[in-house]
From TrEMBL:
Organism of origin: Teladorsagia circumcincta
Example GO molecular function: extracellular ligand-gated monoatomic ion channel activity
Pfam families xrefs: Neur_chan_LBD
SUPFAM superfamilies attached to this UniProt entry: Nicotinic receptor ligand binding domain-like
One GO location term (cellular component): membrane
Stretches assigned to the Neurotransmitter-gated ion-channel ligand-binding domain: 12-71
Protein name: Neurotransmitter-gated ion-channel ligand-binding domain-containing protein
Amino acid sequence: MPQSQASHREGELYAKLLEEYEPLERPVANSSEPDEKNQLVDVNAWLKLSWHDYSLEWDLKDYEGVADLRFK
């Protein structure tokens, strides 16, 4: 796929995913799942965290194979 076309499709995907996205909501499919928010950890280290955010899903076919995006 040409780079300019891929970039255009990525831009469309960003816009669609963030259109109604609420970053303050917990990223769960079922909002009645337990909330473990109040557990605390005091750590002096670098952490790499990842989770599945059901609000940020798309069909790869709709975006010409764009499989992942990076957000700031």
